[in-house]
Write a structure and sequence with these properties.
Blueprint lengths: L24 E6 L14 E8 L5 E8 L8 E6 L3 E2 L16 E8 L7 E7 L13 E4 L5 E4 L4 E3 L16 E6 L5 E7 L2 E4 L20 H6 L5 E2 L5 H7 L2 E2 L1 H4 L14 E2 L3 H10 L3 H8 L25 E4 L5 E4 L2 E9 L4 E8 L6 E6 L9 E2 L1
């Protein structure tokens, strides 16, 4: 059976960009402890690492902080202004042109140094003045790119043709197709574009086959990518999509492959948080994500409005021992972020509440997948 835990939650809220080389940038996090309770008005131990290249990349810069949370469990720090680890390079020595970079947050809600991993999120906005030792030469005539002295250019997120100024914030987008020809509806929700159906593919985007593991004993022992249909039923797979173990969805364990269609990816834990926060937070977002009625969901399907058009389905799951459970009662969707060696983050919905749960599950468990546009 799946195992669920409530642990510390952290989210990157803002990164400030300076025209001149900054000595630090702002970072905020909401700290939650056991049973998802806010840690309010207490000193919190934090360890911040800047990882280079990927979520599993080398930590090029490490520092610690001990801020005090406010009434809402919010802490604010300046990355670059903490106590630097003795083995770390100086913040000013980071070569931002050799990214991407990821912010790894570890916290101790008790204020000590017994840190637990809270989140890893990509630093999408870097200090542009630091992106090249050659410096910035000019801004493009269209105003959407920075041209460096060495001739290379940097796209400014939100302004370039690849990141247009105007994107829909709601409603359906164009359908997309995976490598096997399966077609999926898509939907805009805030700043993001999501698949509005569960993933059904049995191959990675490069055409490599993902093994279909039906035997319970084999499933319980596998530590590589695998998929199955609920109860090994093709008909249920057509309705609810396939169930994947975490090894299939994470590039760090599947050979850097992509289970989603090209141009799309399995969302990180932080990207799930962006979706949930846009819909009003965990306590109400679940109802806005669930398909309405009881055709798929068990009664009473509490608070279901599907106002987001996400159309979340109760596809159930497969435990790390190979057992199936939960169809009709709940649905769970992987993130690409791991919690530790054994567990990874995922989001869950249930028939009896309007809550959108943030939990961890065994990497060997089978859950649904929704893809997010790059």
């Amino acid at each position: 059976m799946k195992k669920f835990f409530s642990v510390v939650s952290a989210v990157l809220l803002s990164v400030s960009i300076w025209a001149q080389a900054p000595q630090s940038f702002s970072y905020q996090a909401v700290i939650r402890g056991i049973n998802n309770v806010l840690v309010a008005n207490k000193p919190v131990g934090m360890k911040i690492s800047l990882l280079q290249g990927s979520e599993k990349g080398k930590a090029v810069y490490v520092e610690t902080h001990k801020p005090t949370s406010n009434d809402n469990g919010l802490v604010s720090i300046a990355i670059g202004g903490g106590t630097k680890d003795a083995s770390s390079i100086a913040f000013a020595s980071i070569d931002w042109s050799k990214g991407p970079y990821f912010v790894q947050t570890e916290t101790d809600p008790a204020g000590g140094i017994s840190y637990s991993l809270s989140s890893v999120s990509q630093l999408l906005s870097v200090p542009y003045a630091l992106t090249s030792s050659n410096g910035i030469s000019r801004v493009s005539v269209t105003g959407d790119s920075l041209i460096l002295a060495n001739g290379t250019s940097i796209i400014i997120p939100g302004l370039s043709a690849a990141n247009p100024k105007s994107k829909p914030t709601s409603g359906y987008g164009s359908n997309i197709t995976d490598v096997e020809g399966n077609s999926y509806k898509t939907v805009y929700i805030g700043t993001q574009q999501w698949m509005a159906e569960n993933l059904k593919v049995s191959k990675y985007s490069d055409g490599t086959t993902i093994p279909n593991v039906t035997d319970n004993t084999q499933w319980s022992k596998i530590t590589t990518g695998a998929w199955c249909n609920y109860n090994n039923s093709d008909s249920l797979g057509k309705i609810y999509g396939k169930l994947y173990d975490w090894y299939a969805v994470s590039p760090s364990t599947n050979g850097n492959k992509n289970v989603c269609p090209s141009g799309w990816h399995v969302p990180s834990d932080t990207e799930w948080t962006i979706l949930i926060d846009y819909l009003g937070g965990e306590s109400v977002a679940g109802g806005k994500l669930k398909e309405v009625g009881t055709t798929s969901w068990n009664s009473p399907n509490t608070d279901a409005t599907n106002i987001s058009l996400f159309t979340g389905l109760p596809g159930g799951g497969r435990g790390n021992g190979g057992d199936y459970s939960g169809i009709g009662g709940g649905g769970g969707w992987w993130s690409s972020a791991e919690y530790d060696t054994f567990y990874a983050w995922f989001r869950g919905l249930s028939y009896d509440v309007g809550y959108a749960g943030r939990n961890i599950s065994d990497k060997e468990s089978g859950s649904s997948v929704r893809c997010l546009r790059d």
